[in-house]
Amino acid sequence: MPGSNIDLGTASILIYLAVSAALGLYIYFIYRISSKSGFYNRFFNKTLACLPVITTGIILAMQSNLVISLGMVGALSIVRFRNAIKDPIDLTFLFWSISAGIIVGAKLFELAILVSLCITVLIFGLDFLPSFRAPFILAISTDSNLEETALLGCVKSFCSKSKIRSRSCSPSSVEWILEIQTKQHDELVKKLLSLPGVRSLNLLSHDGDVRF
Questions:
Q1: CA distances from 75 to 5, 17, 72, 145 (A)
Q2: How many other β-carbons are positioned within 10 Å of the β-carbon of residue 182?
Q3: Mean pLDDT over all residues of the chain?
Q4: What is the pLDDT of residue 76?
Q5: What are phi and psi of 161, to 5 degrees?
Q6: Which of 23, 68, 122, 160 could serve as a FRET partner for 135 with CA atoms 20 to 30 Å apart?
């Protein structure tokens, strides 16, 4: 047959697709167990399970016929995926799923299994690394006649770390933004509100990462 590179039998094709399907199911369960998103997307997970089989089929078709491989390259080059990936870990699973199909299609079964095991160890192992508490943001509105030393002294007495991020002044008031590290939230708020000249305050926290 002109342009034919590899003659694949039915039995070989079934073996490749079975291995891809097994890896797809493995990725499906790993994503389901490790997903920490507030909204678990079952359809996205089903897509992850199907992608290795689809990718393996494409790779086998490209290997079996030169004409098909050129057509696949042209067809796939115009595909555009417009779904936004909201969680970065979803992108990892997406590449993992596609890569598993490519590796199986290249007949490297052991490599596909070892790569999947290594990724699993990394996904769960990195959760055991110590994490650091992100700083709080303290926004305070005070009268302009409140002494800075009194305010900052009160903050430092309840915080292990504190840093002024911004200070906006007007003739009658001062707006403070401070970054703080503290475990005594209630005590700090009560003490600050008891200071004469403090109008209002907001203590904000977030679940971001700490940079070093």
A1: 20, 22, 5, 70
A2: 19
A3: 81
A4: 59
A5: -140, 145
A6: 122
